[in-house]
Structures are given as C-alpha cells and as structure tokens.
Amino acid sequence: MLERIKIFLKAQFSAFTGGVCDYLIMLFLTECFGIHYTVSIAAGCILGAVINFSINKTWSFFRANVKYRFTLTQQLLRFVFVVTSSIALKIAGTYLLTQFTCFDYKIARIITDIVVSLCYNYVLQRYWVFRTGKRQGAKK
Length: 140
What we know:
4 helices; mainly alpha; two-stranded antiparallel sheet; elongated
C-alpha cells in the first residue's frame, strides 16, 4: 500500500511539474501574443507532455528489477494516445467552463486540469502506459 502511495505522489509531482510549464506557455501565448486560449492549451500541453513522460519514465513509475510489459516505442505510442485525448479533454473542458460559467479561462483551465489529471491521465499512465509485468526472477 505504501508503494502505491509513493508512486501516486511521484506521478502527481511529475504532472504538476509538466502542468506548470504547460500553464505558463498557455498564459504566455494567450496574454502576450493574443493567441486564442484553446490553441495555447494545445501548444503548452505538448511541452508539458514531454516533461511529464520523461519524469514518469525515469522516476515516477520506474522500479528496479521490474520488467515493463511494453517496449519504449510501445510506451511512447500509448503515451501519445493518452496525451492527445488529454489535450482534447482539457481544451473542451476549459472552453465549456469558460463559455457556460463566469469562470475566466485561467481558472477554468486549472479546474479542468485537476479533473483530467487525476481521473484520466494518472489512471491510464499508471495502468496502461507504464504497466509492469512480473518481477524479474519471480516464480511463475
């Protein structure tokens, strides 16, 4: 149980780190260059995804003496699927909250990111992208 909590906290740190970079890119592009926030979200998410994958692969979900079920290429392809759908969810969620509530896009984005990160990204990354097999040397 403690190991699962540790992995969860590491993954949240990774998501937060990528998310901060992602959010700052969105703000920079929208506020400084006047790019619509939905386009800025996509641009920021791409940079955030690279950071997130790198941290997750080497630290958050890394476990010594554990064989991953998928090769790096397979993990990258799965991660690209997760990121692409995550970007769509973040754009749609932010847009809908902004258009149909009184939330500013900056606040709507934070709300959307929290929901998508915890309910979608973490689950798919933990159990689909970085899924492990049996421990090396373990009896069958």
